[in-house]
Amino acid sequence: LRALFAFTTDVDTTLASQYLNAQEYALFQTMAHAEQLHSLNVLRTVLAQGAETPLELAAAALLHDVGKARYHLAVWQKTVSVLAESFTPALFARLSAGNDLTWWRAPFMVREQHPAWGADMLKAINSDPLVVFLVGHHAHHLDNCGDVPENYIRLLARLKKADGEN
Fold this sequence. Notes:
mainly alpha, 9 helices, about 0% strand, globular
């Protein structure tokens, strides 16, 4: 429902610009209005978790869904992909795989591949490797991240928790 009424809420660009460099902020601005609002809510949740919040975690909170800017979706398209993933996972897996980004496969591909797309976008502007890691893995299970430092996993857990709450 938040996405349906997102147009009624202003984006707090001042808050976003406090945690992003100029190139990252430019990427943030490519995100759909509802995604920007969601990302700001994720940031606020991360900041409220009580622990110290490294700049990289704050930036990742704001940019975790930046890969979705590659193909903006309508609310109904997002809904279809969520339902398909929940009720027909095999069909969702088939429709979300590959690189054939057609209009009818886009909702599934964006849902599945936006973390990798976002990580690639951030690598292209030389974002901090920790930001790239967090964005690229925010939709993965914590035990499916490979051999990475323990602090990366702790920060990823914080990001995933905040994202799940929003």
